[in-house]
Write a structure and sequence with these properties.
The chain is 34% helix and 16% strand. The protein has 181 residues and is of the alpha+beta class. Strands 1-2-3-4-5-6 form a six-stranded antiparallel sheet.
Length: 181
């Protein structure tokens, strides 16, 4: 070895120390604590937007059923669904996820209730008479997890919401909610 030269010594590395691993885990936990609530809020907002869109689709299908078949509004949500050739009893106007029991989609439970008495004489080819009014509700399956607000609409087509997540039991309770802008 010449004067002025030195031998570089490399310490033997065996991996990460326990402290280093704990710091990395703590950083990951902090990032997760920040990201998870934001993700949940975004998912709830998306579910609520989907519920409103589904209510609009149900309203459109009910109006189309009434004008196409001259039987009034449909007697059930299943009536506006179906597949194959469209008839008064299986109109094929609505997505099967909405028109087939248990009537759930994107964390919301949908319910269609005809209002009043059915038409005394069903239109030709219809098994049941239609109605002059209806009420459709959408309520979160788990309030605060799949959605926060419940929504409803009836034959004029205006949408209303209730921020407590409980579905409207009657058309009057629906109209008592806040109108959706």
């Amino acid at each position: 070895m010449l004067p002025g030269q030195y031998i570089a010594r490399h310490p033997r590395q065996r991996g990460f120390s326990l402290i280093e691993l704990l710091i990395v885990v703590a950083i990951i936990l902090v990032i997760a604590a920040i990201a998870v609530p934001s993700f949940l809020r975004a998912r709830i907002a998306a579910n609520q937007a989907s519920a409103v869109s589904s209510l609009r689709a149900i309203t459109g299908a009910a109006v189309m059923y009434a004008t196409t078949y001259g039987n009034g509004y449909p007697p059930t949500l299943t009536t506006v669904g179906g597949s194959g050739p469209a008839t008064c009893n299986s109109a094929a106007l609505l997505d099967p996820l909405l028109s087939t029991a248990p009537y759930r989609r994107t964390g919301y439970q949908f319910d269609y209730e005809p209002q009043g008495l059915p038409n005394a004489t069903p239109a030709p080819g219809c098994l049941a008479g239609g109605y002059n009014a209806y009420l459709v509700t959408a309520a979160p399956v788990f309030v605060g997890v799949t959605g926060q607000s419940s929504y409803c609409t009836n034959e004029p087509g205006a949408l209303y919401f209730n921020s407590d997540g409980l579905p409207a039991a009657t058309p009057a309770a629906c109209l008592a909610g806040s109108p959706l802008q």
